[in-house]
Amino acid sequence: MLLLGVGCQSQPGQSAPALKAGPEVIKHCQKGPVELTLEVDRRRINAAQFFHLTLRVEGPQNYAFKLPGPNTKMGGFSKAGGQLERPRLVGEKRISQTQTYILEPPGAGEFKLPPLKVSAWDTSKDKAKVLELVSAEIPLSVESLFGPDKKGGLTDIEPPVPQPLNWRLWAAAGAGAALLLALTIWLWRRRKPAALPLPPPLPPAELARRELQHLLERQLPEHGQVKEFYAALSAIIRQYLERNFGIRAPELTTEEFLAELGRRPRGASIIDSRKGLRQEHRHLLRDFLIHCDLVKFARHQPEVDDIEMAVTICRRFINETDGPENGDDAEKLLSALEYRS
Q1: CA-CA distances (angstroms) from residue 24 to 39, 40, 54, 75, 205?
Q2: Taking the CB of residue 311, how many other CB atoms lie within 10 A of it?
Q3: Banded pLDDT at 179 (limits 50, 70, 90)
Q4: How many CB atoms lie within 10 A of CB 97?
Q5: Nearest 5 degrees, angle CA 44-CA 45-CA 47?
Q6: Mean pLDDT for the chain?
Q7: I need a labelling partner for 93 at 20 to 30 A (CA). Which of 11, 18, 218, 249 fits?
Q8: Distant-in-sequence, close-in-space partners of 55: CB < 8 Å, separation ≥ 6
Q9: Are 97 and 87 contacting, i.e. CB atoms less than 8 angstroms apart?
Q10: Terminal CA-to-CA distance of the chain, rounded, Å?
């Protein structure tokens, strides 16, 4: 095979095209029936971009082509990608084959893409001539990311850009905070107060003493309400018996109460405690209640001394049945009541 070298030049009268958005035809040459076209997408890029090259050869259908392989040096550029396409029909008995390259620049500066060589020969002949088409050197430019006047240096940090005050946003935030505060106060006021522990109940004897003192402060006998006074005095004793000994005294008449009291064994405590009604206390209680009934129902008119003695008996009965038993005092009070009656 005979080798014939032909350099690719620009066609006569054709100048380098201006920079445009689409691919630019940088070089175009022809030898015999074979044509070579080299396209570059841009002449100038920045250091973060890539050059896209398209090398296309076209010839008769019976020709074969050899394009630059992946190991071809590209003048300092690194291959970031590319593809060799299979030959394809492009016209009547003509085929075309394309090789693309993606080139990454080594940095900012001015570079030259070296000539690329393509071989073509007629496969229908045993000793066909081999045509070599060589592209011309192509100047390329890569700009710095910092701009043409910057040489890679870092500038000082720019001061923060003042932002206009958004009064509507602040007003909405203030209104929301006020609403939240009002809701919190409203919920706090509506909360249920903690339940205070109930005070312990007063002992039956202490409660009876207070009721007796309150009755005396009303001064019913001085106002002519002797019957009402004796009714209240009898109720105090009956309620005290129910609270302290479990006898339903307020619900029973005097006869029913005395009958209930008589069915209990002598000296026995009415409830499970150390306190109990002694025989003397039973007699004292019986005579006291009968004396009260005489005033309430028989229109008995007691003297002042009788009223004072009834109060004394009531107070002594409460004190003696609540504390240690005192039979002697009970006997004295019983005798005094029988004498007054």
Answers
A1: 6, 6, 10, 20, 119
A2: 16
A3: very high
A4: 22
A5: 135
A6: 78
A7: 11
A8: 36, 37, 38, 39, 67, 68, 98, 99, 100, 101, 116, 118, 135
A9: yes
A10: 167
User: Which residues have C-beta within 8 Å of that of residue 296, sequence separation ≥ 6?
Assistant: 227, 230, 231, 234
Tell me the backbone φ, ψ of residue 310, rounded to 5 degrees.
Answer: -65, -40
**CB 143 within 8 Å of CB 137:** no
Structure tokens at 94: 């003509």
pLDDT at 12: 42
Q: Which residues contact 89 (CB under 8 A, 6 or more apart)?
A: 61, 95, 96
**pLDDT of residue 24 exceeding 80:** no
Domains observed in the chain: 3-143 (2.60.40), 204-340 (no CATH)
Report the amino acid identity of residue 273: S
Q: Which two tokens stand for residue 264?
A: 């209990």
Q: Three-state SS for 265?
A: coil
What pLDDT, on the 0 to 100 scale, is given for residue 17? 41
pTM over 0.85: no
pLDDT in tens, 139-154: 888 888 776 555 555 6
Structure tokens at 16: 């380098």
Contact criterion met (CB below 8 Å) for 128 and 117: no
**The residue type at 244:** N
Rounded to an integer, what distance in angstroms lies between the CA atom of residue 294 and that of residue 233? Answer: 13
- The token pair that represents 56 in the structure block: 């296309």
Only one residue has tokens 């003397």, namely 280
pLDDT band for position 157 (50/70/90)? Answer: confident
